[in-house]
Amino acid sequence: MRSRFILMVVAILLIAGFAALNWTEIIRPTPVAFGPLVMDAPWARSCSACWPSRS
Asked: What is the span of the domain harbouring residue 20?
């Protein structure tokens, strides 16, 4: 059980480190098309729009 917890903490830290190193690319605006409308939005926000929220 303890090894599973340590593995999960290491995985979370690796993902957080990857996001921190690439933060400028993650928040850089990219064109997003909504039918005839094209807007600039950060990649992270446009990608999260594809996943349903759990609220």
From this structure: 2-48
